[in-house]
Amino acid sequence: MKSYGHLFIDGHWVAPVRHGRFDTIDPSNEEVIASVSAATAEDIDIAVNAARKAFDEGPWPRMRGAERAAVLRRIGKGIRERLQELAEIEVRDNGKPLAEALWDLGDAAGCFEYYAGLAEKLDEHAETPIALSDDRFSSVARKEPVGVAGAIIPWNFPMLMAAWKVAPALAAGCTMVLKPSELTPLTALELAGIAANADLPPGVLNVVTGFGHDAGAPLSEHPGIDKLAFTGSVPTGSRIMQAAARDIKNVSLELGGKSPFIVFDDSDIDAAVEWIMFGIFWNQGEVCSATSRVLVQRGIHDRLLDRLKEEARRITIGNGLKNGVLLGPLVSKGQYDKVREAVERGVSEGARLVTGGGRPAHLDKGYFMEPVVFADVPADSWIWNEEIFGPVVCIRAFDEEAEAVRSANDSRFGLAAAVMSRDLARCERVARALRAGIVWINCSQPTFTEAPWGGYKQSGIGRELGEWGLNNYLETKQITRYDSDTPWGWYIK
Ligand code: NAI
Ligand code: MG
């Protein structure tokens, strides 16, 4: 595989100041895929200064939106032209099935194309007149880029999470330093190359690979950063917010979840099983919005559980590059151990292990786990309340709608939720009662670039995607003019 040795700073591929390196691993066979640069605070400083200079003096924030849109469209095209190759890199780095990686990469390209459209609209809509109560004055509200953005992203959707931040930031006219996860750094480096080929000016997008403590933390603390955008775990999000608090950086956070799925007993059992499985097993359950807590109404609970057990056992597990595989390995040894421990904890907490948790017999290498179904999960157990981030679904029975809603909302998280019933009025009512940023009715997980994405409670601050995602990277300036010929007359009468 090709070389990924360098950081991308100010339009150049450069070695890190301290020459640190780390290996990135293919989780399906535990083999090293590539050696990657490990940045430290010195490299972050150089990268932020490059982004700062590109923002303060360079063309990017001063261009018309339509000109930026042309570059964004070329980036989208650059991704599409190499879709298959990039998807295969993503599979090797992350483990996910190829069909899902192709989906992610198509969505990443679509995200650049969508924000190209919003960049064009900014040319007409950047300034909105404000009706003032005093007609001696006129005023406009003007949208301007927030400045230099620092983006820190996770390993579960490497290229897509990069796109969700890079596309709106560039559309807004920001410059940026992007730090991908140390577990999946490769497609972010590819994105840097694609952006350079699309004639993005130097310093506008800098990609710095490295570890959280050595590279992520100095990025979050750097005084040259105006805005931090983070996706990942709650503890790291809290650290980033504390770093931002020191010099009042603008911050948006997309954190974890323990998202509920309420299934009423008038639901079609096969449809319910399909969406429950999609909600927790796609991407190996390593999904922030995974519907990991399922509340099933008592009337269909046992039948649904039988079907779910049967289907979960049928899932084809293996290397994501293999045809027909629907469940790849977990991303790393660390994540595998964490999920294994959670399964053991669930058993010791008294949950009923219906199926899964073992290593598939035909796979002796790689971080593979058979998909796990837990039933009768105690409401006060660790596995019912904490994010596992693996293919582990926890199920409880309920009797009444109000009880299900109460139980669904009884969480410190509030990223997503789902409800299923043939009674649409009931679905709409429950959707409005759920305390979550995203609610799916009669489905779980489908995500659209046009619609807002983000969490209530400890699942985050702010919204990505859609126009909300663009606003993340915009400041609002008031420009107010005194239009009257009459002197103000306060001091000088
Ligand atoms: P993490 O939240 O620690 O890592 C996410 C990103 O933050 C990575 O780029 C990492 O290098 C960076 N980072 C780590 N420490 C940092 C620090 N002190 N300052 C600045 N940046 C830092 O997540 P990790 O350790 O990879 O996974 C642990 C758990 O987090 C998972 O088991 C899962 O429960 C949760 N998670 C949630 C995600 C989501 O989409 N909500 C994504 C990834 C993980
Ligand atoms: Mg990897």
TrEMBL record:
Keyword Zinc assigned: no
Instruction: Describe which pathway this protein belongs to, using the record's wording.
Output: Amine and polyamine biosynthesis; betaine biosynthesis via choline pathway; betaine from betaine aldehyde: step 1/1
The UniProt keyword set, sorted, is:
NAD, Oxidoreductase
Instruction: List the active site.
Output: E254
UniProt KW Membrane keyword: no
An example molecular function term from Gene Ontology annotations: oxidoreductase activity, acting on the aldehyde or oxo group of donors, NAD or NADP as acceptor
Q: Which domain of life is it from?
A: Bacteria
- Please state every residue range assigned to the domain named Aldehyde dehydrogenase: 13-479
**Which family does the record assign?**
Belongs to the aldehyde dehydrogenase family.
What this protein is called in its record is Aldehyde dehydrogenase
Q: Which organism is it from?
A: Caballeronia pedi
